[in-house]
Amino acid sequence: MVLDVVLVVKDRAKARFRAAASAVGKVGAGLVLWGVLLGSKFLVLQAVDLVFGARVSLGGFVPVTALIVVLLLARAGVRRLLDPPATGER
């Protein structure tokens, strides 16, 4: 459920970034998008903590940061595998 909300907010932030006409608008929208992308990871971790409590231990800052990076890379890899290759043919 948390991920669905995050995806909606991220899509709105991306649309705002694409729609920005000025450089200041692009920078502002880019900062909002960056904040959503970074903050969503911590939101998901907080949700895991609320649901599972002390039964889950992720470690300190470095292991959690490494986990986030690995999850992002895994997601990118899955997207690359599932998205059809862009060819010039029709």
Task: Briefly summarize what is shown.
The protein is an all-alpha fold and 90 residues long. It is built from three helices and no strands.
Task: List the SSEs and their pairings.
Elements: H1 2-19, H2 23-52, H3 61-82
Helix pairs in contact: 1-2
Radius of gyration of CA atoms, rounded to a whole number: 17 Å
Mean pLDDT: 85
The protein's oligomeric status is: single chain
Give the total of domains: 1
| Beta strand count | 0
| Portion in strands | under 5%
Show unreliable segments: none
Residues in helices, as a percent range: over 70%
Task: Quickly count the helices.
Answer: 3
Q: Identify the overall geometry.
A: globular
Major sheet summary line: none
Order of helices and strands: HHH
Secondary-structure-based class equals mainly alpha
Q: Report how far apart the termini are.
A: 38 Å
What would you say this structure looks like, in words?
This protein has 90 residues and is mostly helical. It has one domain. 78% of the residues lie in helices and 0% in strands. The protein contains three helices and no strands. It is globular and about 45 Å long. The N and C termini lie far apart (38 Å).
